[in-house]
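Hello again,

I reread your note about wanting to compare the complex against the isolated chains. To keep things tidy I'm splitting this into two emails, and this first one only covers the full assembly. Below are the input lines as submitted, including protein chains and any nucleic acid or small-molecule components. They are followed by the predicted structure of everything together. The single-chain runs will come separately.
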Amino acid sequence: MIVRWVCEKDKKKWIYPVERCIYCKGLIKKQISTKAKIVGITKVNISSPLHPIVPYNVILLEDEFGNRMPKKTMKDYRIGDQYSLEKAKTDSAVAMTKIKYDLGDALRHTLGLLRFKFEDFDNVLIKPSIIEPAYPYQAVDTNPQILDELIMLLKEKGISDILVAEQSMPGNDTVAAAKKSGILDVCLKHKIGVADLGKSEYVEKEHEGMRLEIAKEVFERKVINLPIMKTNSQVGISGAMENMIRVTSPKTQKELFDKDIEKTLPLFVKALPGFLTIGDAVSGMQGDGPTSMGEPAFLNILYASRDPVALDAVFAETCMFPLPKCLEEAKNLGVGKADIGEIEIVGDELDTAKFRLKSADREATPHSRIRLLDGKADPASFNGALKMCSSLIGIGGYELYLAIGRHFTQEQLHGKSRIVAYGSDAISVLKNRGIGVIVEIPENAYDAEKIMMLKSVIENKDKTSLK
Amino acid sequence: MGAYIKGVGMTRFDVDKRMSFQRINECVSEALESSGMKLDDIDAVFASSTDSGRNEERLKHQGPMLSSLFQKKMPILNVPAGCAGGGAALWDSINYLRSSGCSNVLALGYDTVASMTSEILTDEILMGGERIYEQTEGLNFPAQNALVAQQYMMRHNATEDDLALVALKNHENAFDNPKARFYRKNVTIDMIKNSPVVASPLRLFDCSISVDGAAAAIISRDKTDIEIAGSSLYTSRLSAFESEDMTTWEAASLAAKDAYEEASLTPEDIDFAELHDAFTPIELMSYEDLGFAKKGRGKELIREGITNINGKLPVNVSGGLKAKGHPISPTGLSQVYELVIQMRKQAGKRQVDNIRYGLAQNIGGVGTIATVHILKNLN
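Full-complex prediction:
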């Protein structure tokens, strides 16, 4: 699909959205192609940072209006061939679209490729990612523009009963996060309520030996999951599956992590009613995500699928990450497809979008001297630990390990000294395993007390215990 | 008001591990020496650099760096224009000279390209292209030029052999240019035709060679032996695929038209030229954009040897970007360097005789910005 923004009066065309003609100040019309043929091809044999896989082809498309557009492809075409995109044949297909300036068009195009009917959606729960107060450019929370476009599209399709709901990470304020991320402004603009799922009524559900408390809205509405696609130091990536964790109560979230999130996340997703995911990689995140320790990555892609496992697997492959364990587990449990070869991908070709992003360092904290020993800690402990470290930025000292959670591997602990245990899980597990720690910091201590204890250790090289 | 060239300087275009300021020192010293001037005589500087320097010298505020280097307070401005940076710096210098009433202006270009091959540098260079349609769709500069070349070849029946002839001619010229990357390096037609395909139809020897370098020219209101008869700069659309005709670069043809008008000349008056052969097909297209050949007939000039060093219109006797080297911002000024030393009969074995008018064409992006300068030999 080739789009141009046109002023018919002045016969001017732009390749990007222009609201008004700079000559006549008149409104601009979109010129959208219905067909395109291939008028040029080059096979490229040299790699570049955004295009590490060679060879690839770039075809030059020309539409019925004479507008042209280059397109990267791994397929072989001939000059004169018609170019068209096939629509999904299976329900678990993943659609991916490289955005060409216009997010609204990209969203419509992406959803249009799926086997999906808006008529099935009468009332909708949109579940964005709003994990902490962060500006849109930080790529921590869902891009507010994609939410805006989605709400406009739903309204255009006659769906007016829309609720946006999320809860931020424990220790963060959901409303403050929604405000800073720009999500709240979008909801206010559309007069749509924002619900804090941390204060929801929950439906209890027994599933695979777990007692899950899931927000009742999930069962009352059709869910559109709208995660921002990010790296995640705990489970590899934050995307379709991880984003849904926060439709549960804080108690359930702790239980999921306590029982090993990489195993329980697929089980939990299996317990949910089916949902559609739109993966926001307008600007995804690389590095030490999922919090603002990560860095924005230029991806410029939208994903969509009714199979959250497949969508996450396609994202991981886009970033050239190994398949995260929880996706492997999900595949084995039959929650969705995770083998790239088995996933039907429509729209842009996966291989044309692949380039290596920085994965998350599992030991990273905001403080350069504090390394995290993360025993798959629950979100409250994880966020609490990072906030503690953040409070000590600027304090110099000596390296230490801050242990959280309960699922430590032998490899993780091997050769480590100067360990501080944070939270009852880490305290008890390390004690049971006979691992010596300098100090135990309970999660229910006052914030100032926690920070002072950690500061005392970081500043004193020879400290072996805190008396 | 007339504008004249007093002196020129350039470093050898090569892998040059020195830092930028050392290269600047060298080429500016040469330019001053050839003008019989001192740095005190310079009233302003227009410099061009793309900030592709090594880590220890990455800098956006280039003007003050030059002020520190020259130990002088004067107007100094950086005018990055991608690969057309050198031409743009010269164009700015001429216009400033004409409008400000000052006496001498230094035009300068410098970049570090070859001695720092890294992802950072590649990304910097790719940022010369549009981000959403081009960079994300794998259109690096060879690929962009390959698509243009293909359109040109299909429409005008030019062949890969024509491209090879351009490469061969420029390599033969560079053989005798001590400042060229391919100085004293033999390149044969077989090597050219059998070189690996970079982006079809372009082979390795269809692409210019990246080098480090610096080049300078001193522009003066005092009459010298070389007059700037015409100077023009045009900017067109960012992406080649936006153009109605991808095989004509409007910025280049408009700049040429203006420069000819200013000089009261026609293309037939030009005795020799330095053209922006970043990729061999661009030299063929430039023959046409500059009026040396009719549309679609540029190939005839190379087939008939008209643009060879002993032809009627020698082109790229320095070796061009192809074989002298393409350090990005200094390129346009290195073209002017060649015109000047040819006019002053200092070109040694590659000296062209009986030259009155020389033309330099410098292009940035895929035909998106172009400068044309015409020099008149008053000797």
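For quick reference: The domain at 4-118+211-220 of chain B is CATH 3.40.47.10 (Peroxisomal Thiolase; Chain A, domain 1).

B.
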